[in-house]
Backbone:
């Protein structure tokens, strides 16, 4: 993942888009690898798999293993196999590591490498053994039937619960559970515990939501 992050740091979004336009064809994955579908798009977004980039449009499939990158001013909404909804803000790099919605133990694993996103959990979270996690550079985010936001805000990575039951945020140094709508936590680094969840006052919650709003 570190090498992937370095690659995207060196390649601007415009460069990636140029690669798409020059490429003879996009990556093709088996039907069983499909994790979701692009349901809304504002601006430009690219998915890369096996070093082959493809420009995304509404109706395109999102595959397991896709590295998704959004451009300046862009928004991308993905509806996953279990009707979970992931929304990416501008200049976001997001990896769909795994997404298995069926079976006795459904599993969703994703990674936010840069930017901001929101997530609305889907049907898989009604299964007792289901796991849903978003990894970041500093923390791991898990949920239980929840809508939440995560991203950089006021110079730090932060997470807030927008609706639902609970968001679990964990670093190497500790974990917190956000269980009240409108509460959030700040994560300074991977070796520091998340701050105690508290109500986001003023327009802080509005500013967070604005980063992923269409």
Residues:
């Amino acid at each position: 993942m570190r090498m992937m992050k370095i690659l995207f740091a060196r390649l601007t979004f415009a460069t990636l888009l140029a690669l798409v336009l020059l490429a003879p064809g996009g990556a093709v994955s088996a039907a069983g690898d499909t994790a979701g579908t692009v349901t809304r798009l504002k601006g430009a977004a690219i998915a890369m798999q096996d070093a082959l980039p493809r420009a995304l449009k509404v109706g395109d499939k999102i595959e397991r293993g896709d590295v998704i990158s959004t451009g300046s001013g862009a928004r991308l909404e993905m509806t996953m196999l279990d009707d979970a909804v992931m929304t990416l803000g501008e200049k976001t790099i997001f990896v769909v590591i795994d997404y298995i919605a069926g079976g006795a133990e459904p599993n969703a694993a994703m990674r936010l490498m840069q930017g901001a996103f929101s997530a609305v959990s889907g049907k898989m979270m009604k299964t007792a053994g289901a796991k849903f996690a978003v990894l970041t550079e500093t923390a791991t985010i898990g949920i239980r039937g929840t809508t939440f936001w995560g991203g950089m805000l006021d110079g730090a990575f932060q997470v807030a619960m927008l609706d639902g039951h609970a968001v679990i945020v964990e670093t190497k140094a500790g974990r917190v559970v956000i269980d009240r709508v409108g509460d959030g936590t700040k994560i300074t680094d991977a070796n520091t515990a998340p701050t105690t969840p508290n109500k986001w006052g003023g327009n802080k919650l509005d500013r967070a939501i604005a980063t992923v709003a269409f």
Q: What stands out?
A: The chain has a mean pLDDT of 88. The first helix runs from residue 2 to 10. The CA atoms of residues 90 and 175 lie 28 Å apart. The chain is about 10% helix and 50% strand.
